[in-house]
Protein backbone atom coordinates (compact mmCIF):
# COMPACT_ATOMS: atom_id res chain seq x y z
CA UNK A 1 0.00 0.00 0.00
CA UNK A 2 2.81 2.40 0.91
CA UNK A 3 4.73 1.65 -2.31
CA UNK A 4 1.53 2.12 -4.36
CA UNK A 5 0.92 5.47 -2.67
CA UNK A 6 4.50 6.57 -3.43
CA UNK A 7 4.14 5.55 -7.10
CA UNK A 8 0.93 7.59 -7.31
CA UNK A 9 2.66 10.66 -5.80
CA UNK A 10 5.65 10.26 -8.16
CA UNK A 11 3.24 9.99 -11.12
CA UNK A 12 1.42 13.18 -10.07
CA UNK A 13 4.74 15.03 -9.64
CA UNK A 14 5.86 13.83 -13.09
CA UNK A 15 2.62 15.10 -14.70
CA UNK A 16 2.99 18.42 -12.81
CA UNK A 17 6.57 18.73 -14.10
CA UNK A 18 5.44 18.11 -17.71
CA UNK A 19 2.70 20.78 -17.37
CA UNK A 20 5.19 23.32 -15.92
CA UNK A 21 7.71 22.54 -18.69
CA UNK A 22 4.95 22.96 -21.31
CA UNK A 23 3.92 26.37 -19.93
CA UNK A 24 7.54 27.54 -19.57
CA UNK A 25 8.22 26.51 -23.18
CA UNK A 26 5.12 28.39 -24.35
CA UNK A 27 6.17 31.49 -22.41
CA UNK A 28 9.68 31.22 -23.89
CA UNK A 29 8.21 31.01 -27.42
CA UNK A 30 5.96 33.97 -26.63
CA UNK A 31 8.96 36.06 -25.50
CA UNK A 32 11.16 34.87 -28.38
CA UNK A 33 8.73 35.58 -31.22
CA UNK A 34 7.01 38.53 -29.52
CA UNK A 35 3.55 37.20 -30.27
CA UNK A 36 0.56 36.47 -28.05
CA UNK A 37 0.65 32.66 -27.91
CA UNK A 38 -2.58 32.34 -25.91
CA UNK A 39 -4.52 35.02 -27.83
CA UNK A 40 -5.67 33.24 -30.99
At a glance:
The chain has 40 residues and is an all-alpha fold.
Summarize the topology.
Elements: H1 2-33
Could you describe the 3D structure shown?
This protein is mostly helical. The mean pLDDT is 78.
How would you describe this structure in keywords?
0% strand; 40 residues; mainly alpha; transmembrane
What ranges have pLDDT less than 50 throughout 5 or more consecutive residues? none
Terminus-to-terminus distance: 46 Å
Shape: rod-shaped
| SSE-based structural type | mainly alpha
Q: How many beta-strand segments?
A: 0
Q: How large is the count of helical segments?
A: 1
Quaternary organization: single chain
Roughly how many Å is the radius of gyration? 16 Å
Transmembrane segments: 9-28
Keywords: Membrane, Transmembrane, Transmembrane helix
Amino acid sequence: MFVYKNKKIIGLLFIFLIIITFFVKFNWLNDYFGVQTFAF
